[in-house]
Structures are given as structure tokens and as C-alpha cells.
Amino acid sequence: MATTSTDSPTRGSAPEQPPTPAKRTARKRPGDVAFSSTALAAGITILVVLAAVLVFLLAESIPAFTGDPADNPILHGESFAAYVWPLIFGTIWSSILALIMATPLAIGIALFISHYAPRRAASVLGYLIDLLAAVPSVVFGLWGGIVLAGMVQPIYVWLNENLGWIPLFAGQVSATGRTILTAAIVLAVMILPIMTAISREVFLQTPTLHEEAALALGATRWEMIKMAVFPFARGGMVSAAMLGLGRALGETMAVTMVLSVSGAVTFELLTSTNPTPIPANIALRFPEAYGDGVSVLIGTGLVLFVLTFAVNALARWIVSRRAEFSGAN
Q: Can you tell me which residues the record assigns to a coiled coil (predicted)?
């Protein structure tokens, strides 16, 4: 007679679950700990420095907002808002002009390097573009004030004679060529390397399968770029433009060596009465400033700080709206 084993589970009862293994935490190596700590310290340092700069600007510019404008050696009785408004206009106007000139040129150069030029020519041209970023701004200022201004002055005369009915080209043409348009050209050359480098890297990251699929469907190279490259790189191109705009907003020496302080608010590009950007105004007036006049200049620096921060925040917002698009999908 067979006996029933006592080790077999009872009919209808759930089988016993195997014991859950204990979770084992990965051991952190000293190199990983050192790297993560260094990265965290670097990030905190950036925030601390940014906060320190903001606190300094706020503390030192208080007399410009609370003091008597009549006793201020720079304001001369006018309010701080009335003084800084033409400078804000000059900063934005010169930067926008530079961005309008540099953006299509940067995108064209980046496309040529990434999709049209032979490999050797592309590497040489890319190296030259990157080398342009190493040129000091004072060199660009000397070139703009001494060489470029004299070269473009006859062109300004021609534009005034033939297109003077357009408000941008109206007015009395400057005899020296040192106008806001010349300063914008210098700024465009200065922001060209960073915009070209970023656009080139973004174009090169376009998925090869997307490009080959467009070509396989019979698209030309330009049609492939419009259908595959530009949609993928749209966020990167916006980032490049905003970074270039940020540098143009804060550029000092190049614009200072081309323009003179006038504080005018005008859209005319060819006259000697030019809008003045905030950095150039600070560089020209700071050596002779004293007392509350220094606070006024620091206050304009605070306005420039806020303006630059707003531009960068706008760029991040535009890029984040495109973040859902991924060429790898």
C-alpha cells in the first residue's frame, strides 16, 4: 500500500514563494565619489557667483534709484529711467542688426561644412572659423574703426543717394563711416564663430537614416536638407542665435572703439548720431565717474544683466518647446 508523502503541498494551497534576495547597493568607487562631488561643487559655485554678482549690482545701484537726480554728475536732473532707456534701445538695436546679418551667413557656412564641402576642405574651413573666435575683441574694434569704417563709407553714400527714401538709410551720412551699422557689422563678425560652430555640430547630428530615406525617395540634396536636417536642427539653430545675441548684448570694446556716446534714439543707420549700447557707455564714462555717477553706471549694468538673463531664458523656453522632437524616433 503506497504511502502519501508529507512533503507534498496540500491540494488547493498556493505554492511556497522563493525567498526574496536582499537588495545589494552598488559600492561607490572613490573616483565616482570624487567626480560627483566635484561636479556638484562646480554647479553650486556657478549659482553662488551668479547670486553674488546680482547682490553686488543691486546693492551698488541703490543710490542711482533713490538719490536726487539733480545732484548726480551723470543724470544731470533727469530720471534714471529716462537716462537708461536710450541705452537699452542702442543695446537691443545693435544686437538685432548683428543677428540679422550673422544668422544666414552662419547657417550657410555650417551647411557647407557639414553637407557640401569635401572632407579636407571642411576640416580646414571649420578650423579657420573656430580660430576666428580666438581673436580679441579689441582687435575687432581696431579693424572696425580704422579699416572697415573707411571701406563702407562710400557704400553708405550710395545707399543714402539711392535708397534715402527708406527711413533706415535717411539722414546725413557720416563722413567717417563710424555708424551703428558699422558697429553691427563688427558684432556680426564676432558672433559668427560661435553660431557657426553650434549649427555645424547640430547639422552633423542629424540621423543618417533620415537623410538616406529622403534621398532614396528622390529628393535632391537641398530638398533633403529642408525635409530632414532643418526640422531636426531647428532647436539647435535657435540656441546658436540666442547665444550669439547674448554675446552681442554684452560686447564692450569693439563697439566702444567704433561709436561715440550720443544717447540718441533713432533707426537711421548711416548718420553720425548713433544709439549707444550699455556696455560701450559704461566703458567710456566709468574712468571719469565719481560718487553717485558710479552707482548710475552700475545700475545700467544691472539693467544689462537682467536683459541678458531674459534673452537666455527666452532661448531656453524656445528650445524646450522643441525638445519633444527627436530625430532618433
A: none
